[in-house]
Design a protein that fits this description.
Blueprint (H helix, E strand, L loop, with lengths): L15 H10 L1 H12 L2 H17 L8 H17 L24 H7 L3 H12 L4 H8 L3 H24 L2
Amino acid sequence: MPEAKHATSPMPYASSGDFQRVFHEEKDDLYRLSFLLTADHEKAQRCFVSGLEDSVKQNSVFKEWARSWARRAIIQCAVRVINPRPTQENVASGLNSSGKMPEGELPEIAAVLELKAFERFVFVISVLEHYSEHECSILLGGSRRNVIAARLRAVQQIEMQSRFTLSRR
């Protein structure tokens, strides 16, 4: 009679320790992602911590997906905290009361922080994180048309900002 074999999963699930390790090893990149989305250090810290907590609680993810799941958890937390909408008429988020960027920000980061919330989210999620238009629209609760238009506006504004920065040198 053949010996009974125990079925083992070819792809083990991520443990809370796996997520803690990801957040420890990639804390700078994950915090930067959180900050670019929220444009606020306090909110970024909250999203980072919430992203870790959400990831640790969610153990039904394959171990090899832990890194991408951690990034997605931070994005989802930032969406909940900021609630970006395409119709927002808010001013650029990264500006202080004098209309200048906070000192010490790199020009590339400053250009992203100057975007309106929805455009900033679309740019970070679709361009920097390489999510599809469809995934981006689902995460942000908007239409693909709004995502496409916001990405175009964001790229144009960042391009104009970089030209302006280069011309001032």
